[in-house]
Amino acid sequence: MQDDLRKTPPDISGTLGLGVKTGGGGRLWRWLGWGAAVVLLVAAVGAYWLQRSAGDGLQYQTQEIRRGDLTVTVTATGNLAPTNEVEVGSELSGIIRTVVVDYNARVTVGQPLAYLDDTKFAAAVMKSRAALAAARAQLQQARATLLKNQQSLKRIQQARQLSGGRSASESELESAEAELERARAEEAVAKAAIQQAEATLIADENDLAKAVIASPVDGIVLTRSVDPGQTVAASLQAPVLFTLAEDLAEMELRVDVDEADVGLVQEGQTATFTVDAYPERTFQAVITQVRYGSETTDGVVTYKAVLKVDNPDLALRPGMTATADITIQKIANVLLVPNAALRFTPPQPKEKGGGRGLFEVLIPRPPRSGARPETEAKGDGKRQRVWVLKDGQAVPTEVTVGATDGAFTVVTGGDLAPGTALVVGAVSVAK
Question: What is the pTM of this model?
Answer without folding.
Answer: 0.62
